Amino acid sequence: MVRVATVNQIIPFSCVDGPGSRLVIFLQGCNFNCKNCHNPHTIDMCDSCGDCVATCPVGALSLSLSEVTEAVITKPRVLWDSDKCTQCDTCLSTCPKQSSPKTRQYSVPQMLELIRSQVHFINGITVSGGEATLQLPFIIELFQAIKASPDLKHLSCMIDSNGYLSESGWEQVMPYLDGAMIDLKSWQQHTHHYITGRDNHRVFISLKLLAAEGKLYEIRLLYIPRVSDFDNEINAVAGYLSQLPASVRVKLNAFQHHGVTGEARQWGTCSEQQMQQLAAQLSQRGVRNLVLPNVYL
Amino acid sequence: MTLQHRITQITRDPNLSPKQKSNFLALEAEASLPYMALSDAVTEAKESGIICDMFEGNAPFKPRYVLPDYAKFLQNGSEYLELSPVQDLDEALNALTIIYHHVPSVTNIPVYLGQLDDILLPFCQGLDPETIYRKLKLFWIMLDRTLPDAFMHVNIGPTDNIVCRTILRVDAELKQIAPNLTFMYDPQITPDELLQIAASNICECSKPHIANYPLHANSFDEKGFGIVSCYNSLPLAGGANTLVRINLKEVALKASSVDDFFNQVLPHYCQLTYELIEARAKFLHEESNFFNSFLVKEGLIEESRFAPMFGIYGMAEAVNILLGTPSNHYGHNAAANELGHKISKALDAIVKSTPVKYGYHGLALLHSQGGMNVDKDVTPGVRIPYGTEPNPIVHIQALAEHHQYYTSGISDILTIDETVKANPLAMMQLCKGALSLGFREFSANVASNDLIRVTGYMIKLSDIASFKQAGSRTNTTWLGAEAAVNTKILERQPRVIAHEQSPTHAK
Ligand code: SF4
Ligand code: SF4
């Protein structure tokens, strides 16, 4: 069977997802349910219920006919015509699952072809999400193929993840992985649970493993004033961060409302001043390699 | 408005310096002369905005762009300027300072200051880096303050040398609008480390442009070329006698079908463009006495190295019009992009097969023209309309195919998200990618820099903000200020607009 991944979006040129310029593949689906998700339509998989089809104003959506093959009846699938689509996002607001019909399936060879068409412009590729590691077998095959292709093997392969992947999962991808960017959404278990719906035990295990392997490129802290607890727990957080290898970038992100729905809309956003204050507290306590946002929008 | 009224307005304008007033007054005087004799068809096409003489004046007494052979000048000195051959760096900088004031152009300020690293390097032997740095920094400040025009253009590279590196250092430090700067890149010669410095400079101050050296060099003979004003590549020791441009949008509106466009309408208006080119070049070469100047007599320029530039603009609108509705496909849709490439190819064929009396090897040079402050609802050159640009890679891929045809320059400006500032490696990779796909010149605006590019020239957003109250020391600021109003440059960031000098006083 050909391995395919469900892709929400591909950004062919990004400056913020690892070193240099990168092609970023956003995979559909996530196992966290963060209240502050900036892109909630990447969380759930579309189940082709078809509700969105009729609401598309330009007829870019349709349902495929059911297929009957050797006694297997396949369910109709929702089809998206990207050429017709005007990106009005009506379908996203229709969907009862908060999913998106605007995804595409890519096999590894198709993805390699796409990467080849951009190869002159990029220093590497990053798989992100959603939560990329939910489609780990695809990632492993893709990275493996890149490392085995003379024309692509100079590209670095990185994963941007929430850190929930199991140890054995990381071990499988490790031989082909150049680096990972891991989110740490808060320090205390209960805060983490409140924000994401899961605890952060496994996140710490992932961080430790990646750091030990020299493959932790960046740890990302999203600062939501009065919600995430980095400021209350500043000594513990700083102590933890300053023990990471010196090469690890500590990236502070400032919570903003862009794309956010639901109760997180009521949370206060993080101002430049609040961000500076957190950064100052961390660096006073010996945290190096801090990277701050350059825009607060 | 009567001539007298316009003159009154100029003399009393509270925002113009005396020098700026003199320039505008001279233009009014020249504009009061009758135009050269033209056929009715050309006059009509001109008046209806299909072809345009770029406000070069009714009696062109100087070429549009002049590229003197400064190496020769430094080596020989000048009888006319009473200067002996140059012995050291101080003398070289002094001699250049002098000659720049004698090099004319459409803006009255030189548009080409030379391949400065090549010509200054011989005089830097034995000087320590700090001395070179101090002298070049003072020179840079002098240029910006005394020749206040950002069309003034310096070239450096592709070799790695101390002058090239020092200029990059000084330029990033000072962040002046002038001079403009092109860094020549040759993958065979230029080390990555040097290109990375140039790319980091772009992140700092949107300068330099990075030119595809092998591609440009192959378009001209062994005497060389220079990049001047905004992205105009022209023969060294020569220049452009005139630039006439054709508005492809208006041409497309006259066509009844794609076939009619290619077979009838486009050739017809190209022919009228040539008529205007010939009339203007004829006056300059035969009546103005320009070619009796010391620049010619002392061998710094040669009449035979001047060519007319055949400019085009409004490609995006032309393609969208020819495709019918929905019509915003240019830059985004394969069929639209291909139609654009086909138009460029057709123009190239016309320009390469139409002899002119005063040309480079008897021909004009095709140019993708960067627009002017009077252009409304029409996109410069072959660019993708403002605000509809796709991501930088799709952008580059959509336009790369055009670049081979525009020998005398094509200006695309990529607008890059400011996240690139923290990641200059990405800027370098993007640049390499663009050049490897055949871009002649890579230019990028980085959102949020105060110093931004408007076509080839630079303005400071902070200057625009204060311009309304106080006027500006710099000639190009008012163009940017006007552009801000006409093309809404400030409304959407990141954003690019395009202009060449329009020497008309706003009426
Ligand atoms: S975003 Fe595209 S697919 Fe969705 S409703 Fe709008 S046009 Fe249709
Ligand atoms: S996107 Fe949502 S509404 Fe549309 S078919 Fe999928 S699950 Fe149904």
Automatic annotation (TrEMBL), chain A:
Instruction: Name the cofactor(s) required for activity, per the record.
Output: [4Fe-4S] cluster
User: Where's the 4Fe-4S ferredoxin-type domain?
Assistant: 39-66, 76-105
| Domain of life assignment | Bacteria
Q: Name one Pfam family in it.
A: Radical_SAM
Q: Which UniProt keywords apply?
A: 4Fe-4S, Iron, Iron-sulfur, Metal-binding, Oxidoreductase, S-adenosyl-L-methionine
InterPro entries for this protein: 4Fe4S_Fe-S-bd, 4Fe4S_Fe_S_CS, Aldolase_TIM, BssD/PflA/YjjW, Organic_radical-activating, Organic_radical_activase, Radical_activat_CS, rSAM
Query: One GO MF term, please?
Result: 4 iron, 4 sulfur cluster binding
**Secreted keyword on record:** no
Q: Residue limits of the Radical SAM core domain? A: 16-297
Q: Does the keyword Metal-binding apply?
A: yes
Question: Which family is it part of?
Answer: Belongs to the organic radical-activating enzymes family.
Q: What is this protein called?
A: Radical SAM domain protein
TrEMBL record, chain B:
| InterPro entries from the UniProt entry | Glycyl_radical_YjjI-like (IPR016905)
Domain of life where this protein originates: Bacteria
UniProt cross-references to NCBIfam families, sorted A to Z: glycyl_YjjI
Protein name from the UniProt record: YjjI family glycine radical enzyme
Identify the species of origin: Shewanella halifaxensis (strain HAW-EB4)
Q: What is the lineage of its organism?
A: Bacteria, Pseudomonadati, Pseudomonadota, Gammaproteobacteria, Alteromonadales
